[in-house]
Design a protein that fits this description.
- The complex is a heterodimer of chains A (about 140) and B (about 500).
- Chain A is mainly alpha-helical and about 140 residues long.
- Chain A is built from five helices and two strands; from the N terminus they run H-H-H-H-E-E-H.
- Chain A is about 70% helix and about 10% strand.
- In chain A, strands 1-2 form a two-stranded antiparallel ribbon.
- In chain B, strands 1-2 form a two-stranded antiparallel sheet.
- The longest helix of chain B has about 30 residues.
- Classes of the chains: A mainly alpha (about 140), B mainly alpha (about 500).
Chain lengths: ~140, ~500
């Protein structure tokens, strides 16, 4: 049965971008305030799921042609590499480094190696969530 | 190298991640998986050397101070278990080449095995009780995947039970951790060992200790909580069964041993007496199962439960002989269970069935398999000088020295039942009139048999060379019996 989903599709086209922007905001907010890679990843995944609900899996696959298992693997490697860099400096595992930089536009900004780890977490969360949802959704 | 003790946790994870990139290339999957575990084993050997010469290794993640950050601790007990677990995983990977099938190999079988090893090694290494929960989840996730991997009908049915039991016990675990935190205000195991003796009201702590016994008991399959194990372990293919049988329940046993020697020692008359009684009941229940079935897999599966009882009885005695015996028997049991599952797997492949009544006469066609199996069976029952003997001797001695001499008598008596249960497989499968076997390619047979033979040889070596290993075992026992060594190393006061 084909339902009339013009409303849903039109709204989704706008809302998806709002959710994605919010995901990025939450991701960067994560260092000092609630948020981070995990929540950001879940938000991103929810945006993609919304797309899937409004359109269908085939269309979404065309828009976002990612292999989510690869995404998980890359995320894991990134997280492991960031945490593992401490091995080469002979400090306890997971020790993170940070410093303050003067960036154009942003001004004085603190950059943390933990953000890279969080990026890994973000990729893993998106990858795993989407793999699970796709696997269940594709069955029929 | 301050991070050396983390290598056995990080390396399998790294290699498991690398394997995710090319699931279809079986050749690369096999090579990289085997290399990854071999490198883990070498790292484990370095760690053993470091722990042996410099004493306990401890690192608190993220450069935080000890009770606040997550501590990872490696003493002789944990490093010995890490080495044993890694060695068994290596053999399981070799054994899988022939037995697991191309389809499973192409759908992330080896990454799952490596992530399971990550979880197991992490659980053995962690020094923080909440982190222990996290590593339990890591290994459980991988085990969920491995138990359902392949999607055969019995697998799907048993996976539901396995999932339910483990999710309930994990929920209980978090609840128990929350109780413990609300009473003590810390989750670092070394810090717990400092704080718990200072608390006057031991009643609530005793309740929490028993709650933890229930939680870990689900994983370790102690007496009333083992109900899920025979069915669930029966479903997956033999290499997965060997991996589960050798490693998973032992993580539960390790967790009980660690918590009951390090900090739940405030009310030994209740908690450890309870543990001793449950251990003996576990042995009896296992014996009944092991003798009742005519299915080779079921018989060995019930022997897992018996061994859990024997080890925990040693732990419950809280004296030198009992604890050392438990450590030795734990290592022996991991190795011998993997070897027995391998051999039983070969027998099942040869006959095309696991029913003992449909087997017979294998000694004429496969004599070496027969004698290897007999050696492993004798090792399991603890016939000197094989590997089951020194551990069981020490556990029995510990029972006689401690308050529970009756338990030692039960262990001695049930050793005969254990022997009977495994010898029945020998009698039915190898003696009697020959039954037609399934013709099997010589090189395929060798690829299954050689890892099994090597593992049996290692167990014989562990038994005959027990004198060589005893300094390590008694060093491990010393840390368990003197929590102050552990506390000082972690908190570095």
């Amino acid at each position: 049965m084909r339902t009339n989903d013009v409303m849903l599709q039109t709204a989704t086209k706008v809302v998806t971008f709002i959710i994605l922007m919010f995901a990025v905001h939450i991701f960067f907010a994560g260092h000092y305030t609630p948020g981070g890679g995990f929540v950001g990843g879940l938000l991103t995944a929810s945006a993609i799921v919304l797309l899937m609900l409004a359109f269908d899996i085939e269309t979404v696959k065309k828009i976002i042609p990612f292999n989510y298992v690869m995404m998980t693997a890359i995320g894991l490697l990134l997280a492991l590499a960031t945490a593992g860099a401490s091995i080469f400096f002979n400090v306890p595992f997971f020790t993170h480094a940070y410093d303050y930089f003067h960036l154009p536009l942003f001004g004085k900004t603190s950059l943390h190696s933990a953000a890279l780890f969080d990026l890994g977490v973000y990729l893993v969360v998106v990858g795993v969530t989407m793999t699970i949802i796709q696997t269940i959704g594709e069955d029929e | 190298m301050i991070n050396l003790l983390l290598f056995p946790v990080i390396i399998p994870m790294l290699f498991g991640t690398i394997l995710l990139f090319f699931p279809k290339n079986i050749r690369m999957q096999r090579i990289i998986a085997a290399c990854g575990v071999a490198i883990t084993f070498i790292a484990g050997l370095f760690l053993l050397a470091a722990v042996k010469t410099n004493g306990l290794q401890a690192v608190t993640l993220g450069s935080w101070d000890a009770p606040f950050g997550i501590s990872m601790v490696s003493d002789l007990f944990s490093v010995l278990l890490v080495l044993t677990a890694t060695l068994i995983t290596l053999f399981v990977i070799f054994y899988s080449f022939q037995t697991i099938g191309f389809e499973r190999e192409q759908s992330y079988y080896y990454p799952a095995v490596l992530f399971l090893l990550t979880g197991v090694n992490g659980a053995f290494t962690t020094g923080d009780i909440f982190n222990l929960f996290v590593f339990f989840e890591v290994l459980l996730m991988s085990s969920y995947m491995l138990i359902v991997h392949g999607g055969e009908k019995p697998q799907l049915r048993e996976t539901i039970k396995y999932l339910l039991v483990n999710i309930i016990s994990s929920a209980l675990f978090v609840a128990a951790v929350a109780y413990l935190y609300s009473v003590t205000g810390t989750l670092n195991m070394a810090d717990l060992a400092v704080k718990i003796p200072q608390i006057q009201e031991t009643g609530i702590l005793t309740v929490i200790a028993v709650l933890f016994l229930v939680v870990f008991g689900f994983k370790a399959s102690i007496f009333p909580l083992y109900f899920w194990l025979p069915g669930s372990y029966y479903a997956p293919p033999i290499p997965v069964l060997a991996l589960f049988g050798a490693l998973l329940t032992k993580v539960g046993v390790y967790a009980i041993t660690r918590t009951y020697t390090l900090f739940f020692t405030m009310n030994i008359e209740v908690t450890h007496e309870l543990l001793a009684i449950i251990a003996i009941l576990t042995i009896l229940a296992g014996c009944i199962g092991a003798l009742a079935y005519f299915d080779v897999k079921k018989i060995i599966i019930y022997n897992i439960i018996i061994a859990v009882g024997v080890i925990l009885f040693g732990v419950s005695q809280m004296n030198g002989a009992g604890v050392e015996g438990a450590i030795f028997y734990l290592i022996h049991d991991m190795l011998i269970k993997a070897a027995l599952f391998f051999l039983v797997g070969i027998i099942a492949v040869l006959f095309g069935t696991t029913n003992l009544r449909e087997m017979g006469g294998l000694i004429k066609t496969y004599p070496l398999l027969g004698w290897t199996y007999l050696l492993a069976a004798f090792g399991l029952a603890g016939i000197p000088p094989l590997s089951g003997f020194p551990g069981k001797l020490l556990i029995v001695q510990g029972g006689f020295e401690g308050p529970n001499f009756w338990g030692s008598l039960v262990i001695l008596a049930t050793s005969l039942l254990v022997l009977l249960s495994v010898i029945r497989i020998f009698i039915y499968a190898f003696w009697g009139p020959p039954v037609k076997t399934i013709p099997i390619n010589k090189s395929a047979y060798n690829q299954m048999f050689i890892p099994s033979l090597l593992l049996v040889i290692i167990t014989v070596f562990v038994g005959v060379g027990a004198e060589l290993f005893m300094p390590l075992i008694s060093g491990a026992g010393e840390v368990l019996l003197n929590p102050s060594i552990y506390i000082d190393a972690v908190l570095k006061e």
